[in-house]
Amino acid sequence: MRFGAAQVRVFGTRDGSYSQVTDRENYDSQVTLTDYEAELAVGHFGRNSIHIGNVTSDRAASAKQFRLYPDGEYVTLNLVFPKPGSQELRLYLAEGRGFKPDGGSIWFMYLLDDELWIGSLGEPEWRSLMSDLRLDEADVVYQESIHDPASIRTSVLAARDVYQRDRRVAIEAMEMSGYACCVDADHYTFTSKATGQPYVEAHHLIPMSVQSEFSVPLDVVENVYCLCPTCHSAVHHAEDFLVREIVEGLASQRQVLEKFGIMCNELLGYYSVEDID
Which regions of the chain carry the CATH code 2.40.330.10? Predict the structure, then answer.
């Protein structure tokens, strides 16, 4: 899978990919590079410099140098096209050389400063590291502004792009929903002092933090869902299975994916609960 917004934030580059290591790949000590993984490797090393045939037929030509995440030490791994005339590109794992991910872990490769980096993390650690977009540091200020009759307040967060969100858009979305939670209209909530209506919070299904990836505004009614405080906290802080259930449920209510031209797994990736192949 190609790097998305979460990976760009963590690794500082869009030129990367990640996938899950199977138990068989771990046992065989090899992974087959597919799609963008192969494109990255071929683009960096050059197709003509990648050996065609088994490793033992030319060990020198098979050996390629990578930088190992996170410390940046150099490691040498074998990378070959094992069969003449085939597009299959195979990377050999080697515990003795410092890179043999466990089955079920996430391995990744990315280009940074003209060097090809490689690494692996357990799936829980990977998802935790990628969950920054889900947390939405600017959300507290946004919710306060919705339920404050005063003008919109803005905040500046260190090393983060914060896009202004219009209180009027949130109010319109709340009115459209009848001030009911979009997860379950029967969810209990108290009365808001500011609006005199049941208290709900506004949630951008496609996070505002990825606005730079879109040519159209994300702060629009179609992308704003009203949630009770419990559901809203859950979508930011709950276990992955519940976050996924809420996000998929909200997306199914409107044609938000079609409107913004993304796939469901890409949306789930913003919350770090996507399926990882």
Answer: 5-129
pLDDT tens for each residue of 168-199: 999 999 999 999 999 999 999 999 988 899 99
What are the tens digits of pLDDT across the range 209-262?
A: 888 889 999 999 999 999 999 999 999 999 999 999 999 999 999 999 999 999
Give the Å distances, CA to CA, from 86 to 29, 30, 53, 63, 79: 20, 17, 10, 19, 14
Nearest alpha-carbon partner for 146 in 192, 184, 189, 180: 192
What does the alpha-carbon distance between residue 169 and residue 223 come to, in Å, rounded to a whole number?
A: 10
- What's the whole-model pTM score? 0.84
Cβ proximity of 79 and 54 under 8 Å: no
Mean pLDDT of 137-153: 65
Instruction: State which amino acid sits at residue 196.
Output: G
5-129 has which fold?
At1g16640 B3 domain (2.40.330)
Whether residue 105 contacts residue 124, with contact meaning beta carbons closer than 8 Å, is answered with: no
Asked if 133 and 236 touch (Cβ cutoff 8 Å), the reply is: no
Q: Give, for 63, the enclosing helix (H) or strand (E).
A: strand 63-68
Question: Helix (H, G, I), strand (E, B), or coil: what is residue 79?
Answer: strand
Contact present, 189 and 233 (Cβ < 8 Å): no
**Which element (helix H / strand E) includes 222?**
none
